[in-house]
Q: What sequence folds into this?
């Protein structure tokens, strides 16, 4: 599989979790795509023989934005009031995108900020 870095257009390499998270032995067996030039990386689908990426490679800014988006979004369904699937259907509608394209792993920084903006008020009600 060929994975290209969206920042520098160089080819990423598939590495073990030990390279990405040397302080996390529990992640050593996981696979990640890494662009050494940009320090951009993304995890892989665990059931994929070809180690399909979970989304786009993310630099530090995008990783921080995705984490914030997940923190805001996960509160909507993890309390049990909605299923994850229901929460993603709601989010897709709020963002004005299709359910099939509604995945935080595919979002850019601006879309992640939009997720935070629509999700935070939901739990404050």
A:
């Amino acid at each position: 599989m060929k994975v290209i870095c969206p920042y520098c257009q160089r080819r990423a390499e598939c590495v073990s979790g030990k390279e990405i998270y040397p302080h996390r032995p529990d992640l050593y067996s996981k696979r990640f795509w890494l662009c050494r030039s940009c320090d951009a990386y993304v995890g892989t689908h665990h059931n994929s023989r070809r180690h399909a990426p979970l989304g786009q490679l993310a630099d530090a800014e995008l990783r921080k934005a995705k984490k914030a988006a997940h923190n805001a979004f996960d509160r909507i369904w993890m309390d049990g009031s909605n299923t994850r699937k229901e929460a993603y259907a709601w989010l897709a509608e709020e963002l004005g995108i299709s359910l099939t394209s509604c995945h935080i792993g595919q979002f850019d920084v601006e879309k992640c900020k939009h997720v935070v903006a629509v999700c935070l008020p939901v739990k404050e009600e």
Remarks:
- Residues 60-124 form one domain.
- Residues 74 and 84 are 8 Å apart (CA to CA).
